Amino acid sequence: MSKQREDLREWEKKLQEGEERLAKGQRIINEREQRANENDRLCRQKEKDLEEAQKKIDETNITLRNKEDDVNNRIVNITLKEKVNFGLCL
Questions:
Q1: 71-85 pLDDT, tens per residue?
Q2: Which of 16, 42, 65, 88 has its CA 20 to 30 A from that of 24?
């Protein structure tokens, strides 16, 4: 009978150790899952930030093209005025 009790205690001890290892493994898995979720969230935020930055770059490029067109038009107008004024001076 005492041998059976000793075996039972040993079995319970092993069972408890196994449960503790299982709980520790589950905690590790949960921590990894949380880190993975946080990394996913950060990646989505960075992607959103990049999209917004690209949109601003595109808008700035359009503004710069418009300003370049305006400058070119002014140069053409100045050149025409110079030609007209040069022609009047002759």
A1: 999 999 999 998 888
A2: 42
Annotate 2-11 with b (16+ C-beta within 10 A) or e (fewer): eeeeeeeeee
* pTM for this model (two decimals): 0.63
- As a whole number of angstroms, the distance between CA 38 and CA 32 comes to 10
Helix (H, G, I), strand (E, B) or coil at 73: helix
Write out the DSSP string of 37-65: HHHHHHHHHHHHHHHHHHHHHHHHHHHHH
Q: For residue 51, what are the contacts with CB-CB under 8 A and spacing of at least 6?
A: none
